[in-house]
Structure formats: structure tokens, C-alpha cells
Amino acid sequence: MSGPTAAAAGPAARRVLLLGGTAEARELAELLEADPAFDVESSLAGRVANPRLPVGRSRIGGFGGADGLADYLREGRFAAVVDATHPFAATISGNVAAAAEATGLPRLSVVRPEWVPGPSDSWVRVPTVAAAAAELASRTSGRALLTTGRQDVHEFAHLDTWWFVVRVVDPPSKGLPRRCALLLDRGPYTVEGERDLMRRNRIDVLVTKNSGGDLVSAKLTAARENGVDVVMVDRPDRPGGATVTTAADAFSWLVSTGSGPRAN
Ligand code: NAP
Fold this sequence. Notes:
By secondary structure, this protein is α/β, with parallel strands linked by helices. It has 2 domains: about 15-115 and about 235-255, Rossmann fold (3-Layer(aba) Sandwich), CATH 3.40.50.1000; about 125-235, Rossmann fold (3-Layer(aba) Sandwich), CATH 3.40.50. Helix content is about 30%, strand content about 20%. The chain has helices spanning about 25-35, 65-75, 90-105, 130-135, 190-200, 220-225, 245-255; strands at about 15-20, 40-45, 55-60, 80-85, 105-110, 125, 140-145, 160-170, 180-185, 205-210, 230-235, 245. Helix 1 crosses helix 7, helix 2 (about 65-75) packs across helix 3 and helix 5 packs across helix 6. The radius of gyration is 20 Å and the shape is elongated. It starts with 13 loop residues before the first strand and ends in an 8-residue tail after the last helix. Bound molecules: NADP nicotinamide-adenine-dinucleotide phosphate (NAP). NADP nicotinamide-adenine-dinucleotide phosphate binds next to strand 2, helix 2 and helix 3.
């Protein structure tokens, strides 16, 4: 999807491709859009039906792998690429790293800090969503709040002795568990709301990815207060390189990284 060209961008503005789908990416788009030294284009995968669009110009859909992304960067005469995708979006992060290397463009990652357990938290850490399902299977039965996203719900479909609240933004396309309630919702959430959801549904296990950040962390506080176990899916490996944790730091990095071709 294309919108109007950024009105604020001057003729020598540096083009930045911003891979998004996160709150940090929307924040950074706002900062860049307000500065005429930059001409930012946001990119979204198009996974959800009604995405929260960043301000400024945006496009939606894949590039066709790392090679397609490298071509897009060259053809668009971008000066830098910022990977502000979700910490679990490992494929696109790998592609951004490969495309930046192929084009010689500066690349920055924006990765929000992980959640860490407090002294009164009861977490079981697992490496993948499939391993989270195996963890539940190892317990005879229970009632789980599942918040790992619609793409992975099918991993739990065979757990017939479990009852689930499946909370997702859009309905999953495949494999809901047989015994479940589907809750279509999107953060941010409050601790009070999360506590209430867990109590009403007599939840004993929360299954979540370690997404980090404040927007959806209320469930962890509520789990702690309600004595609910947490099965925490650890983050996948991601490419190294320059990394910051906030949109403000990403903006400063871009301001200080003055090299690269300019848009004309
Ligand atoms: P993924 O598995 O890493 O990426 C799969 C493919 O989707 C990529 O190879 C790429 O297609 C396309 N893609 C992903 N992000 C894109 C973007 N920002 N712009 C253009 N194409 C993109 O990604 P995912 O885990 O499905 O996540 C998809 C998007 O949702 C990401 O942008 C991420 O920030 C957001 N998100 C993900 C999660 C999560 O839990 N995974 C949670 C919240 C938000 P091509 O190879 O064809 O270029």
C-alpha cells in the first residue's frame, strides 16, 4: 500500500526503510516523519486484517525473500534500513541482515528488552511454541490462557484434556483446540482486566512468548497475583549488529549515521 510522499521531507532527505509491525516502529515512523532530513517508508507484512498503520508512507506485503528485499532497497535508493519487527519475526530479521549486507547499507535493529521473572514468578521456559505445547501435554490437564498468536495455535490442537482461552487479534486459519473459547482482542491490557479474565476462566497456566515491552505485560503481573504458572517461550536467535531498545535511540542512531546515498 502506498500513501502520499512525506510532505515534510526535503529534496535531500535520506530514505529509510522501516520494517515494522510493532509499537516501536510506529513511534520511530512518527519521529522520522516529523524531521525533514528523513524520508521514511514503513513496511508491514499484512498478517492482520486491520493493522495499526504508522504515520507517513507505508507498504504492505513480503518482498520475496532477502534478494527481493535487496532489490527493493537498491531500486528505492534507500540510505539505511531499520529492522523494528517483532522479536519473534526471525525470518524477516534474517532477510533484513542479508539484504543490508548485499547492498552495503547501514542496518539498525530495534529490539525491546526481554521480560525477566521476578522472585515470586513461577515460569517454565521453553525454546519454541511446540515445546510449550509439549510442556502442557506433560501435565495431565488444566485451563490455559494462550497468547502466543494465531499462527501457532494449531500446536495445541491435540491437547484434548486441556481447556483454553485462545486470545488472538484475528481468528486462526487452522487448528483450534477442541475445548476452547476464542477471544478476539488486541492490547494494551490492564492488570485488573487480565486478573479478571484469569479468575473468571479459572486459568491455571498462562502460555506466552517473551515479547517484552509494556503493552501486553499486564498478564504477567496478573499471573503472579493469581498464582498462575507461566510457560514462557524464549525468543529465537536473531542477527547481531547495531541494536537499540527504543524508538528514540533508533532516531539518534539514524541522525548520527550520515553516510549512504540520498534520495533525489
Ligand atoms: P516472519 O516469519 O519473520 O516473516 C515471514 C515473511 O513475512 C518474511 O519472509 C517476509 O516475506 C514477510 N514479512 C515479515 N515482516 C514483514 C514486514 N515488516 N514487511 C514486509 N514483509 C514482511 O514474520 P512473522 O513472525 O510472520 O511476523 C510478521 C509481522 O508481524 C512482522 O512484521 C512482525 O513485526 C509482526 N508481528 C509478529 C509477531 C510474532 O509473534 N511473530 C507479533 C507481533 C507482530 P518475504 O520473504 O516475502 O519478504
